[in-house]
Write a structure and sequence with these properties.
The chain has about 550 residues and is of the alpha/beta class. It has three domains: about 5-125 and about 250-430, P-loop containing nucleotide triphosphate hydrolases (Rossmann fold, 3-Layer(aba) Sandwich), CATH 3.40.50; about 130-245, Domain 2, N(10)-formyltetrahydrofolate synthetase (2-Layer Sandwich), CATH 3.30.1510; about 445-525, Formyltetrahydrofolate synthetase, domain 3. Strands 1, 2, 3, 4, 5, 6, 14, 15, 16, 17, 18 and 19 form a twelve-stranded mixed sheet that branches. A four-stranded mixed sheet has the order 20-22-23-21. Strand 5 (about 110) and strand 6 (about 115) form a beta hairpin. It is globular.
Amino acid sequence: MKSDIEIARGATIKPIQEIGAQLGIENTALEPYGHYKAKIDLEYIDSLKDRPDGKLILVTAMTPTPAGEGKTTTTVGLGDGMRRLGKKTAICLREPSLGPCFGMKGGAAGGGFAQIIPMEDINLHFTGDFHAISAAHNLLSAMIDNHIYWGNALQLDARRVSWKRVVDMNDRALRDIVASLGGVANGFPRQTGFDITVASEIMAILCLSVSLPDLERRIRRIIVGQSVDRQNVTAEQIKAAGSMTVLLRDALKPNLVQSLEQTPAFVHGGPFANIAHGCNSLIATKTALKLSDYVITEAGFGADLGAEKFFDIKCRKGNLKPDAAVIVATIKALKFQGGAKVKELAQPDMGALQKGLENLGQHIRNMGQFGVPVLVATNRYSSDSDEEVAAVAKYCESFGVTAHECNHWAKGGEGTLLLAEDVIQIVDSGAGQFRTLYDDKMQLWDKARHIARTIYQADDIIGDKKVRAQFEAFQAQGFGHLPICMAKTQYSFSTDPFLKGAPTHHVTPIREVRLAAGAGFLVAICGDIMTMPGLPRHPAAEQIDIDENGETVGLF
């Protein structure tokens, strides 16, 4: 079987102007980056505001294995399938981070015959958005230290500077560092660190902004630390917002590419699904909805993280009303949730499968709380037996939900036609009545508790005196209306990554609270979540190279 990159290189790829023409985008509204990718002009996007919106379908997943369950592949395959049925369809995805590309998980352009292309460009530097985000973030970091160096008129407490630096690479050595060593000329030494770029608040801000003025307003609100008298200090006070916005001017424009089957794909933004909301940009989704009859998008990690944040943060902020949700399941993940070991997932084990179905069932129940119709896509592998696939379908029937066997990895859009037909029928029927999980007026602590109880099936949340005081302080400072972004492991409904299935009678410990004032949400950090990953013992980077023909090898 050919590798993903070999399949991508052998595909028929059309000039980006032809892809734009499918959606009615004029050539003058496209800003090409080479022949096969382009950004879309913001003035053109603004001209679409009075058009009606198409239908919005979310692709999410059950609790994943470390390798992931194919949300991106399914999103692409479903988009291709709907287009094969004659529907004007667009796909909306996040941009890949270099960290996973050179680490363990790989890229985020799909796989097999359900990919977006040019996959090398998309998985590497693409249109430079992540570099711009890193530059804007680090400009603010530099200006903070510069402000302290030149007299510190704001009396910023160097011990309470919360704004770190970022780099788009897994590098555990940078998690905690001491900066400004080397004497008086280098400033005042202080402890700080690096996050990965996708964990930057700038990334979250970019993905929730709908215009350049909105972007700058959000940047101004960023809280970088506290003064010696415990007052919040903002990016506006550091006088960095304008120059940061200039660096992000082009990055805000959505990127347009295509799938292997020439379905238009908007690939823009890439916030972490733990520390942020884990969805592609709001401006890309809104643009796609104005230009298409159906938009397929995805949210990061399992539905307890990505889908909940998509509904409660992105849809709330953008006034989006999704029409359906597709939960991706794999036989491997079901057996993993049922207790099977990673090395045994390709072996038949109906006992583990049946037990693992409880995890899928909880995700189905959770999606029902948001009022959207639910379907299940069983992303089939060659090692899956017909008996196992049938067991998933039978289990889902008990919820009144259809589970469709999908073979898009091997067959492209043809492998999702039954799912595509069902999705079209459901969203066209208007059966969905979308609602968020909680009201803006609910107290911050109660919002976090409500998510934990209703989505994670926890008995309660806990936090020490300092954490409770942080919640109370943010409430008193006027941030009580903000949604909660729960940052926890993606490998369990609980905060323990080794607790599988659908556990109950557990608690959700919150160890830290961070205010993302620019993005507009409160981050509740649960368990041992890190914002700077490390590389595995044998990272993918060891296998990536350039061959004698100048072609990239080892990239998936």
